[in-house]
Amino acid sequence: MKRFYAQAAWVAAGSSYAVQLDGRAIKTPARNPLQLPTEKLADAIAREWAAQAEDIDPTTMPLTALAQGALDQVAQERSRIISRIAAFADSDMLYYRGDENQAALVAHQAEKWDPLLDWARARYDISFQLTYGIMHQSQAPQTIARLTEAVEAQDDFTIAAMLSLVGLAGSLVAILGLVEQVFDVETLWPVMNLEELWQEEQWGRDDLAVETRARKQAEFAAAVHFLTLARS
């Protein structure tokens, strides 16, 4: 799409904030008003639009995309989106450890992953069943219920960020720790990529894997930035 406006700016709109292009408010793809919860998020999204060249490139506007997701998807289909996130309560990456032939990896996983599970046990009064190998083992109904409730307690903009973050991380526990500001992104990112980084140490660098991880890290950082701005 060609750029069709000269200026992008944000304005206060009642208790929320709107982004305008040449004085006209932006709407989402579903034609909902792009109403944002904080001035900082509105300013950042206005900057995304202002930075566009002759052609608008949506891939350079991750905050806009996440805000649209909050308004078009989460607000309209909240239960379905929560279910997608909460599905990780029964299949969190942190539950799955190496098998009996991978003692060094299992010890490394315990060192890096157990502190996250220990926090969640204490925070939500739940327990976890760990699996050594690839066989799935269901978690206790109380564990799934409590973690689902923790997702349900979040606002639409936080849930939009979580949908992206949980998918990239493969861990609901880790992202709840991030949302509750117990763990930061610098701590979590290498923990979430533990097995891949471990394999690189054992067998050497895979350039395609490194490139893919860098792309995912950029997406992860953008979603964390969105989460921070939407709550500040």
Structure notes:
The chain is of the alpha+beta class and 232 residues long. It folds into 2 domains: 8-58, ATP12-like (2-Layer Sandwich); 78-230, Orthogonal Bundle (ATP12-like fold). 57% of the residues lie in helices and 9% in strands. The chain is built from 10 helices and 6 strands; from the N terminus they run ββββαααβαβαααααα. Strands 1, 2, 3 and 4 form a 4-stranded antiparallel β-sheet that branches. α4 links the parallel β5 and β6. It is globular.
Offer a quick outline of the entry.
By secondary structure, the chain is an alpha+beta fold.
Secondary-structure blueprint:
Elements: E1 8-13, E2 16-21, E3 24-25, E4 35-36, H1 39-50, H2 62-74, H3 78-86, E5 96-97, H4 103-124, E6 131-132, H5 141-152, H6 156-169, H7 172-179, H8 185-192, H9 194-203, H10 207-230
Parallel strand pairs: 5-6
Antiparallel strand pairs: 1-2, 2-3, 2-4
Helix pairs in contact: 2-6, 2-10, 3-5, 3-6, 6-7, 6-10
CATH fold annotation of the largest domain: ATP12-like fold
Please compute the radius of gyration using only Cα atoms.
20 Å
Distance between the termini: 32 Å
Low-confidence segments: none
CATH superfamily of the largest domain: ATP12 ATPase
Morphology = globular
How would you state the average pLDDT, rounded? 95
Number of strands: 6
- Identify the CATH architecture of the largest domain: Orthogonal Bundle
Under CATH at level 1, the class of the largest domain stands as: Mainly Alpha
- Number of folding domains? 2
Provide the helix percentage.
Answer: 55-70%
The sequence of SSEs as H and E is EEEEHHHEHEHHHHHH
Sheet-strand content, in percent, reads 5-15%
What would you call the structural class?
alpha+beta
How many alpha or pi helices? 10
Biggest sheet architecture: 4 strands, antiparallel
